[in-house]
Amino acid sequence: MSRSDSGYGERVDFAFDRARHDRQGNRRHDDTWKDDPGLRVLVVGGEHVPTVDGPALRWITRDEAPEGTWMLLGESGGVTHAAVVVDRVAEDLAPTSVRVLAPLLGPDELSLAIHAIAMARWLRSHRFCARCGTELEVAESGHLLTCRECGAHHFPRTDPAVIMLITDESDRALLARNAAWPEGRYSTLAGFVEPGEALEDAVRREVREEVGLPVGDVSYAGSQPWPFPSSLMLGFFGRATASEISVDEDEIAHARWFTRDELTAAVGGEEIVLPPPHVSISRWLIESWLSGPASP
After folding, report:
1. What is the pLDDT of residues 61-101, one digit of tens each?
2. Where is the Nudix hydrolase domain (predicted)?
């Protein structure tokens, strides 16, 4: 099911919703791309990148790049882009988290930044071979780790997670507050997919575990890479077959049903706070439902 036929009105954009650059995987086998005269380089440390002139990425030349692990990002606007991974971005480069920059950057730069951050987090967290413990070597322009001892190849890891807006028979939406969140902050439910589990079953299991509700129909809505550190958020709409909520009191502190009018009033009156717009797919799911038909 595509976003356009979700049944909940017009499409609403969110950060990282699609790749804008050509990753040029066929160029990763050697380092000749480093010789491109117009090469633009982004320094990456954790989830932080350099900035300049407010909400803009600071790109540097190859000669200006610090020591670190290189990776090819690909081509955008006819120019080759790369990243160099360091432990920490220098303070004089005005490092800023990509989470903060997400709603401020243009889609082309954001596409490159999220690729760089995802790969940087993986490279920094996978330094030793899971098979024999030997320190790994970087290959394929930063997109493969190899073990010189046992020959194992380690590819970038992505953890699938489902995130879902659940509605009931009256088309009310279920929102919940995580136990670790401040009072008043609400969002959709979410959870990681377990091994051997279909995505739709993960949606039903997570909802049952967290709020005690059975879910029938589940439909795919869209996806969003979320490299903090390594998730792929798979968005769904689901229809509960009962309405009595029973929170687990471990992960979820409170959950409640909202009509569209109730949610609009609660947000407008600052009774609750939703995820920021244009950043997380959770807000997009909520906005998509809000823009749909009026509740019966």
Report:
1. 999 999 999 999 999 999 999 999 999 999 999 999 998 88
2. 156-287
